[in-house]
């Protein structure tokens, strides 16, 4: 209770309130524009937040993270183009509803389901906090190493159908993180005697290149489009009532979102896949799924909005980011010398509480904002895509350059931009690169310090949590092999494979 | 024959045109980097394996090369999708915008953030086909809004331009701090 009150004290500063407002409203707008996702916005704003207080900067980024998916549902429902990648499933049922003249109903239902998912996840976080505070201190170097290793394995395996690509890109991320002067023996690694490489490859430069600049390039080299969305008429309040009729689907989907969000490397897509499958199987009208089913819409939106809250669990409790956006936020913590991990829960519980309350508030702000401003947002969607590319490129400059006023950083970011563009065009995932960089760094440090006390290999897993994590790794790998064999037996013929089905990496 | 078909199926995945070009280049890069491990990293005597400076580069490059081989096999045994070189051409087209970006980066310390941004926004918009007065004004206003947001309000670290030195004192300090 004390922590809760001092958490409220931390939040009760005008800078924090302003950051929350700007972050959540800005996040909705950014999410609503197809072609700019939360990742682009967070990457650009990241260096600007370094000069702010940690709570102010984090609140703003959390605002964008938590609210972009609300906005992303608007073009998904109205024009069949998801605003952010995780709204792709929303188009399945949202757009058919619009075609039937039920746009307002679909939007209202999507907002309500998002709200339910978002709040559900934060309540889970608050309830789980005491447990986390109890477990987190038992995570020593070897446990954190194993958790990071588990994260890498999961992020690779989560990219079904692209596992080799995800594996090589995750390894590439680990590799570029090793470039430069290493901090223990002070030797140079892969610098090729180039001065600009000895300070290493900065994570923010890679993030900006691979998320923001690559997106700008992708928009600039493509044909100009100006998505057209018609204004929506009707009340936005009906959805909350309708949602209550589908409590079971909403709760189950949010539950999947929370569980998948907590596991590093898994994220929204798996949560949505599971909740959509569950909703379809348990529905009285399964034939409506994919053709305008309210339950399908709820399953998609509640699951994706439950993930951000849950993804904060491994980040705050262990310092392990589960996906790209929390990996970016980790750098904000580091810059301010706040090291997320067991100590944060032990000594700064009020700070953690403040973050939770901020996330709760952002959901309320966004819901209220959306009820009144949906039609305004339908106009913002119409920005021509190549013009948008120019704007993103202009913004990317200030993101990279303000980091340390280095033209070399800008050139490197542009290089990673081209790399990111190629990956996007090939529909290959970029997230493994970022997670490889972050988790690779964590693994290197933690393995070194863990091995100092380990005499035989078995010592490594002689503590209960380490043993559980190791067993999980073995189990996941074994299950994966089993699934591959089973899928191989039930495979489709070449003609039946839809090569355009998985374009989720291109948005 | 059946067996070979089965093996092919195991490596099949959702692909796009140009995949094989990327696969080859990535594999060559990985193998080249791995071949440099002796040159570019140090093996310290009397240090445990896990604390060796070359341990993580070796592990990551090993996996990179291994997965890149599998990725290439996957590309090679899958049916060809038309449009490979058109796609590579599109990748290369992005280099034009890299050049635009780098010129912008070079211009900021000389002519200042404000002027460089306004010019960049307007000229690039013109290049992209927004050639009427309305879009030019929108581009300039967008550039101005970005400078206002980041430099004036958020005070991010972007140094003043060299040409600010030629301004009268009062203007110079104003421009240095806010634009």
In short:
With 507 residues, chain A is mainly α.
Protein described:
The complex is a heterodimer of chains A (507) and B (179). By secondary structure, chain A is mainly alpha-helical. Chain A has helices at residues 2-11, 14-32, 38-49, 54-79, 88-99, 103-135, 141-157, 163-178, 195-198, 203-221, 238-244, 247-262, 268-282, 294-318, 324-335, 342-347, 349-380, 385-404, 407-425, 431-451, 464-489, and strands spanning 180-181, 188-189. Chain A has a two-stranded antiparallel ribbon. In chain A, 57% of the residues are buried. Residues 498-502 of chain A have low confidence and may be disordered. Chain B has 179 residues and is mainly alpha-helical. Chain B has helices spanning 2-11, 19-35, 37-40, 55-77, 84-111, 113-127, 133-153, 169-178. In chain B, helix 2 (19-35) runs antiparallel to helix 4 (55-77) and helix 5 packs antiparallel against helix 6. The radius of gyration of chain B is 26 Å and the shape is flat. Chain B starts with a helix and ends with a helix. The chains are: A mainly alpha (507), B mainly alpha (179). Chains A and B meet through helix 8, strand 2, helix 10, helix 18 and helix 19 of A and helix 1, helix 2, helix 4, helix 5 and helix 6 of B.
What portion of the residues of chain B fall into strands of 2 or more residues?
under 5%
Number of domains of chain B: 2
Oligomer: heterodimer
Question: Using only CA atoms, what is the Rg of chain B?
Answer: 26 Å
Mind describing the biggest β-sheet of chain A? 2 strands, antiparallel
Element string of chain A (H = helix, E = strand): HHHHHHHHEEHHHHHHHHHHHHH
Identify the overall geometry of chain B: flat
- What's the Cα radius of gyration of chain A? 22 Å
């Amino acid at each position: 209770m004390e922590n809760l009150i001092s958490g409220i004290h931390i939040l009760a500063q005008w800078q924090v309130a302003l950051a929350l407002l700007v972050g959540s409203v800005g996040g909705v707008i950014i999410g609503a524009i197809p072609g700019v996702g939360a990742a682009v916005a967070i990457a650009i704003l990241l260096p600007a937040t370094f000069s702010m207080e940690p709570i102010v900067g984090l609140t703003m980024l959390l605002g964008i993270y938590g609210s972009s998916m609300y906005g992303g549902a608007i073009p998904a429902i109205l024009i069949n183009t998801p605003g952010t990648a995780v709204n792709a499933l929303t188009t399945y049922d949202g757009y058919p509803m619009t075609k039937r003249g039920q746009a307002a109903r679909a939007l209202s239902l999507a907002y309500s389901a998002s709200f339910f998912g978002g709040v559900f996840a934060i309540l889970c976080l608050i309830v789980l906090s005491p447990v986390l505070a109890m477990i987190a201190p038992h995570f020593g170097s070897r446990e954190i190493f194993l958790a990071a290793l588990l994260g890498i394995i999961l992020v690779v395996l989560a990219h079904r159908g692209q596992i080799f690509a995800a594996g090589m890109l995750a390894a590439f991320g680990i590799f570029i993180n090793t470039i430069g002067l290493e901090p223990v023996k002070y030797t140079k690694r892969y610098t090729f005697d180039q001065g600009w490489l000895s300070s290493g490859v900065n994570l923010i430069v890679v993030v900006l290149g691979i998320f923001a600049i690559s997106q700008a390039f992708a928009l600039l080299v493509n044909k100009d489009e100006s998505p057209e969305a018609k204004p929506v008429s009707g009340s936005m309040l009906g959805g909350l009532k309708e949602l209550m009729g589908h409590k079971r689907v909403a709760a189950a989907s949010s539950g999947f979102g929370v569980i998948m969000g907590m596991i590093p490397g898994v994220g929204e897509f798996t949560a949505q896949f599971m909740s959509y499958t569950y909703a379809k199987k348990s529905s009285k009208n399964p034939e409506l799924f994919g053709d305008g089913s309210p339950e399908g819409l709820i399953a998609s939106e509640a699951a994706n909005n439950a993930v951000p809250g849950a993804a904060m669990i491994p980040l705050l409790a262990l310092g392990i980011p589960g996906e790209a956006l929390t990996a970016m936020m980790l750098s904000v913590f580091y810059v301010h010398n706040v090291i997320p991990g067991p100590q944060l829960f032990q000594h700064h519980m009020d700070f953690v509480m403040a973050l939770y309350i901020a996330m709760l508030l952002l959901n309320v702000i966004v819901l209220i904002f959306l009820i009144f401003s949906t039609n305004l947002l339908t106009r913002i969607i119409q920005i021509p895509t190549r013009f948008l590319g120019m704007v993103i490129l202009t913004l990317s400059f200030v993101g990279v350059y303000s980091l340390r006023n280095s033209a070399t950083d800008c050139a490197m970011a542009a290089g990673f931009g081209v790399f990111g563009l190629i990956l996007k065009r090939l529909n290959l995932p970029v997230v493994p690169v970022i997670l490889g960089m972050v988790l690779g760094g964590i693994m290197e440090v933690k393995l070194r310090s863990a091995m100092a006390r380990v005499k035989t290999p078995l010592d490594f897993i002689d503590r209960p949590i380490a043993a559980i994590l190791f067993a999980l790794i073995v189990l996941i790998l074994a299950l994966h092999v089993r699934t591959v064999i089973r899928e191989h037996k039930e495979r489709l013929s070449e003609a039946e494979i839809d090569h355009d089905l998985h374009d989720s990496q291109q948005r | 024959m059946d067996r070979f078909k089965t093996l092919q199926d195991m490596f099949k995945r959702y692909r796009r045109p140009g995949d094989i070009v990327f696969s080859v280049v990535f594999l060559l890069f990985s193998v080249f980097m791995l071949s440099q491990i002796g040159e570019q990293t140090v093996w310290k005597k009397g240090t445990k394996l896990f604390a060796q400076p070359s341990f993580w580069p070796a592990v990551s490059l090993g996996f990179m090369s291994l997965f890149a081989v599998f990725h290439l096999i996957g590309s090679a045994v899958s049916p060809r999708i038309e449009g490979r070189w058109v796609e590579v051409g599109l990748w290369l087209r992005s280099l034009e915008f890299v050049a635009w970006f780098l010129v912008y980066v070079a211009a900021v310390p000389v002519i200042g953030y404000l002027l460089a941004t306004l010019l960049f926004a307007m000229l690039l918009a013109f290049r992209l086909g927004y050639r009427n007065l309305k879009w030019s004004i929108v581009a300039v206003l967008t550039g101005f809004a970005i400078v206002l947001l980041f430099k004036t309000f958020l005070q991010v670290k972007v140094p003043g331009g060299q040409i600010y030195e030629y301004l009268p004192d009062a203007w110079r300090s104003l421009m240095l701090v806010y634009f």
